[in-house]
Design brief:
With about 180 residues, the protein is α/β, with parallel strands linked by helices. The chain contains 3 helices and 19 strands. It folds into 2 domains: about 1-105, 3 Solenoid (UDP N-Acetylglucosamine Acyltransferase, domain 1); about 110-170, no CATH class.
Length: about 180
C-alpha cells in the first residue's frame, strides 16, 4: 500500500505513519501537502491524498483512488479503487463508496430522528442500511419503517424527508459510477 505524491513519488503506509504528527494532528507529507490520517487507516497503491484532507481511523482508501483537498473521510469508511472524492467533500463514518465512483461534492444528507438519509447515487437514497430507488422508497417506506422499528411519527417524518430529497437531490451531491461499478 502506498500514497502517490504530487511529485510522482510513492510513499508506503509505513513511511506515512512514520511522519510525525504536529500539534494540530497533521502529517506534513514530503510534497508539502498536509494530511490527517487516522490510526489503522489503509491507503491503497497509488492513491492520491489532497492537501489538508482527513482520513479517519480504520478507513480504507482503494488503489489509485483520489481524495481531494480538504476532503474528509470518516472513521471505518471505505473508498473503492479508482474512486474520486472531490475537494471539500465529506464522507461519513462507516460509509462505502464503490470502485470507480466519482463524487465531486458532498451528497445531500438529512439527519432525521433515527438514521441519516443520504442521496446515495443517482436515483437512490440510503437510510441507515437500507438503499432503495426513489420509486421503491415512495411505494414501501411505511413498511420499511415498521420493519425497522420506526414509530408512526418517524415514518411520517421520513416520508417528508424522502419527498424533499427526491424533489431536490437530483442536482445535489450525486455519485456517478463507471461502467465497472456493480452496486
Amino acid at each position: 500500500m502506498s500514497i502517490l505524491l504530487k511529485n510522482g513519488k510513492l510513499l508506503s503506509n509505513a513511511e506515512i505513519f512514520a511522519i510525525p504528527v504536529d500539534g494540530d494532528g497533521w502529517r506534513l507529507l514530503p510534497d508539502g501537502a498536509r494530511a490527517r490520517i487516522g490510526d489503522g487507516a489503509r491507503i491503497g497503491d497509488g492513491a492520491r491524498i489532497g492537501d489538508r484532507a482527513s482520513i479517519g481511523a480504520r478507513a480504507s482508501i482503494g488503489a489509485r483512488a483520489s481524495i481531494g483537498a480538504r476532503a474528509s473521510i470518516g472513521a471505518r469508511a471505505s473508498i473503492g479503487a479508482r474512486a474520486s472524492i472531490g475537494a471539500r467533500a465529506s464522507i461519513g463514518d462507516g460509509a462505502s463508496i464503490g470502485d470507480g465512483a466519482r463524487m465531486d461534492h458532498s451528497p445531500l444528507a438529512i439527519q432525521g430522528s433515527g438514521h441519516l438519509a443520504i442521496q446515495h447515487s443517482k436515483g437512490f437514497i440510503s437510510i441507515g442500511c437500507e438503499i432503495h430507488s426513489h420509486d421503491e422508497w415512495l411505494e414501501h417506506y411505511v413498511v420499511i419503517g415498521k420493519i425497522n422499528g420506526y414509530s408512526e411519527a418517524q415514518i411520517e417524518e421520513y416520508g417528508k424527508i424522502l419527498r424533499f430529497m427526491i424533489e431536490n437531490g437530483h442536482e445535489i451531491g450525486v455519485v456517478e459510477h463507471d461502467a465497472e461499478e456493480t452496486k
